[in-house]
Write a structure and sequence with these properties.
alpha/beta, TIM Barrel, ten-stranded parallel beta sheet, 10 strands, binds S-adenosylmethionine, binds 6-(5-methyl-2-OXO-imidazolidin-4-yl)-hexanoic acid, binds iron/sulfur cluster
Length: 332
């Protein structure tokens, strides 16, 4: 019988909501302490993955995601842009690498990937970014297993598809596709042996139980997603969620710490919402196990902290950028 590595025992896929709630509701500093301790068992706590994000096709999306400024249903003033040219994207990727990024994520405001010339162009982008030596990630909406295989062949390293929220709350946020559609896409990318990046958003009016249920869905995927982005809603004028109150920094810390505890091997990304977080709150998120960020002045369509400010933040905390392709393929 093969002896299990003691760390593997901590990687579980049978979490219950009660167990997760017990962790989430710990006194905050106790929670941070436990998450920080576990974080050190699995990761180098001085390393932060720096990812760059580029919207390769912007706006006029047929979905009705209530949080999203790119939906055709809402008047948000987003500048609609057709699919970028390959050379333009590769130039952005080179600049991102120069600025210190090791992962490059291309986002398209599509409901799903279609087998057409646009997809061929995205495949070319994937090849090009891979040749530059960056971990290539894409977030293009729903994909079939066959499309995922084509992305893999082109050199795609990771695919981002968030569960966004709990299955129950999902219907109040998106009506144009189902939770099952989301899980199917995650499965299709997994089958094609692409690493999975999947997380969600807080601050959309969901309950604590919804947050816990969302975390349970992610943690009971087997294997766990290699990357788990935790986003705070960026409320955009014109969307149905424009008036949502800002996420409390402690709630952000709780989500990160809980994700760290239940998916100890995964990279946990402190994603959208950093504009609203103080340096100190971000430091607490890193302490609690966040080990990845999006760097660059813009996310897809909304602002992100200036690059220089982030450099200062990381160097001030004694954190260093993580190298590309570092052991993420180890089974989760
Ligand atoms: N269209 C593709 C899709 O929906 O899968 C890919 C791009 S979509 C913008 C990627 C993710 O960005 C969403 O699943 C959501 O989690 C996040 N997102 C979008 N708008 C956001 C906002 N205003 N605040 C926080 N996260 C947001
Ligand atoms: C993720 O979880 N967050 C990123 C990335 N994956 C694609 C997107 C955040 C988008 C925030 C809103 C915007 O800039 O349009
Ligand atoms: Fe479209 Fe993605 Fe925005 Fe939903 S989140 S409206 S699918 S771009």
């Amino acid at each position: 019988m093969q002896v299990k590595n003691p760390q593997e025992i901590l990687v579980r896929h049978n979490w219950t909501n009660d167990e997760i709630a017990e962790i989430y509701n710990l006194p905050l500093l106790e929670l941070v302490y436990r998450a920080a301790t576990l974080h050190r068992e699995f990761h180098d706590p001085s390393e932060i993955q720096v990812c760059s994000l580029l919207s390769i096709k912007t706006g006029a999306c047929t979905e009705d995601c209530a949080y999203c400024p790119q939906s055709v249903e809402y008047h948000t003033g987003v500048d609609v842009q057709p699919l970028m040219l390959v050379d333009e994207v590769l130039e952005k990727a080179r600049n991102a690498k120069e600025a210190g990024a090791t992962r490059f994520c291309m986002g398209a405001a599509w409901r799903e990937v279609r087998d057409n010339r646009d997809f061929d162009r995205v495949l070319e982008m994937v090849r090009g970014v891979n040749d530059i030596g960056l971990e290539v990630c894409a977030t293009l909406g729903m994909v079939t297993e066959e499309q995922a295989r084509k992305l893999k062949e082109a050199g795609l390293y990771a695919y981002n598809h968030n569960v966004d929220t709990s299955s129950g709350y999902y219907k109040s946020i998106i009506t144009t596709r189902t939770y099952k559609d989301r899980i199917d896409t995650i499965r299709n990318t997994r089958k094609a042996e692409i690493t999975v990046c999947s997380g969600g958003i807080i601050g959309m009016g969901e309950s604590v139980e919804d947050r816990i249920e969302m975390l349970r869905t992610l943690a009971n995927l087997d294997p766990h997603p290699e990357s788990v982005p935790i986003n705070a809603l960026v409320p955009v004028e014109g969307t149905p969620l424009q008036d949502m109150p800002p996420v409390d920094a402690w709630d952000f810390v709780r989500m990160i710490a809980t994700a760290r505890m239940i998916m100890p091997k995964s990279m946990v990304r402190l994603s959208a919402g950093r504009m609203q977080l103080s340096r100190e709150a971000q430091a607490l998120c890193f302490m609690a196990g966040a080990n990845s960020i999006f760097a660059g002045d813009k996310l897809l369509t909304t602002p992100n902290p200036p690059v220089d400010e982030d450099k200062e933040l990381l160097s001030g905390l004694g954190l260093k950028p993580r190298k590309a392709f570092k052991d993420e393929l180890a089974s989760n």
